[in-house]
Amino acid sequence: MRILVTGGAGFIGSHTADRLVSLGHEVTVLDALTAPVHRGRKPNYLTPGAELYVGDVRNRDLLANLLRRTDAVYHFAAYQDYLTDFSTFTDVNITSTALVYETIVAERLEMMRVVVASSQAALGEGLYRCPGHGEQTPDMRPEAQLARSEWDIRCRVCGGPLEMLPTPERIHNPQNAYGMSKYGEELVAVNLGRRYGIPTTALRYSIVQGPRQSVYNAYSGACRIFNLHYLLGGAPTLYEDGEAVRDYVNIHDVVDANVLVLTDDRADGQVFNVGGGTPYTTREFAEVVRHQYGSDKPGVVSGEYRFGDTRHILSDIDAIKQLGWTPRRTPADSVAEYAAWLSGMDGLDEILAAADAKMRALGVVRKAGA
Ligand SMILES: NC(=O)c1ccc[n+]([C@@H]2O[C@H](COP(=O)([O-])OP(=O)(O)OC[C@H]3O[C@@H](n4cnc5c(N)ncnc54)[C@H](O)[C@@H]3O)[C@@H](O)[C@H]2O)c1
Questions:
Q1: Does 169 fall in a domain?
Q2: Ligand 1, closest atom to CA 118?
């Protein structure tokens, strides 16, 4: 197939493009090489054999030109950050998706599949259960609660403890501008796909880990930060009490899922969670990274928390397992590969300091009781 990969110079896009080329597809990448992910030049890992167009996915003429000679699209280009320019999230992530469909419909293009990258952020706090009051999908925890170091979410009826459940696709409860834009992207893609007969799949990735994840983007998360701390001889901060739960999925497993839904008719019109399937507390994940570096310094609970973080989230991956996909790599595999990738890089101490300063300047990192 002739396949267009938007955001194909990024982390997930470039690994996907590599696999597509190795499978014999003709791959075109459309990527604006945006900061802070990129530093104004092509990354050296760019897929050999893929043709790169440097440009914005919202450039109507460029997009139309590329779609005219395309059989399938992976739409990965996205804006991801903690900043408060809410309209940029909707503009880059939702408008670009609408433009893909608008062009396909206007030009009557025959598209075999459009795959859009959604996110676990569309699930928000996810699904919980109270033994007495049943299922609940809580909202963001109030600031006053976090300031008292009360981390767990409680039943909205009786105030008792809640059990966290794996969150299936039927739940969508995004709490931040990024999550809302990803849910919007999903709605646009799946609904317009159904309405106009354009085979479409949306994949809600959990936290994806592996090499090429930008070290410059504050959004890149725990894998980057924890690796940098241990590589530089320190130990990471564990926000809250270190017991928040997440699931982590390896980049090669994500690429397996991406390739699977390209041709599987059962994926048409569907949204799938693509996650690691196994819950890890932040503390447990920090231990995975600590072992990688042979450090004797565990992560440190400092009484700090991040504004807007979900307490727990674990994606239910049963639906995509029905298609034959399952995560085959562990977070330890991802960390080992990421550490090997970092080992050749200069200036990592400055990156770590800058990331920390940025999060503090944005007021994202806060201290309980302050
Ligand atoms: N990495 C994760 O953990 C994760 C989790 C859930 C969802 N996702 C989604 O997966 C997709 C890929 O994420 P990633 O981690 O590879 O991110 P990334 O930042 O590494 O890659 C995104 C790429 O898109 C490009 N881009 C950004 N804005 C653009 C625009 N307007 N026009 C053209 N190109 C543009 C960037 O230059 C970058 O190369 C995104 O849609 C993201 O929302 C990622």
A1: yes
A2: 7
The angle subtended at Cα 121 by Cα 193 and Cα 20, nearest 5°, is 55
CA–centroid distance, residue 213 to ligand 1 (Å): 10
- Protein residue with least CA distance to atom 2, ligand 1: 208
The CATH number assigned to the domain holding 248 equals 3.40.50.720
Residue 312 alpha carbon to ligand 1 centre in Å: 23
Residue numbers of the domain that contains 245: 2-363
Domain-located, residue 298? yes
Which runs of consecutive H residues, i.e. helices, occur in the chain? 11-22, 60-67, 86-89, 96-106, 143-147, 177-196, 222-231, 251-263, 282-293, 318-321, 331-342, 348-361
pLDDT digits (tens, 9 = 90+) for 285-329: 999 999 999 999 999 999 999 988 999 999 999 999 999 999 999
Protein residue closest via CA to atom 37 of ligand 1: 33
**Ligand 1 center from residue 12 Cα (angstroms):** 7
User: What pLDDT, on the 0 to 100 scale, is given for residue 219?
Assistant: 64
How many structural domains is the chain composed of?
1
Q: Tokens 């880990």 appear where?
A: 209
Residue 295: exposure state from Cβ atoms within 10 A (0-12, 13-18, ≥19): middle
Q: Ligand 1 centre from 13 Cα, in Å?
A: 7
Q: Is residue 125 part of a domain?
A: yes
Question: Is the separation of the CB atoms in 111 and 104 below 8 Å?
Answer: yes
The one-letter code for the residue type at 26 is E
200-to-76, 265, 274 alpha-carbon distances in Å: 14, 10, 16
Asked whether residue 368 is assigned to any structural domain, the reply reads: no
Backbone angles phi and psi of 11, in degrees to 5: -65, -65
Whether the CB-CB separation of 365 and 304 falls below 8 Å is answered with yes
Cα 260 to Cα 78: distance, rounded to the nearest angstrom: 22
pTM: 0.97
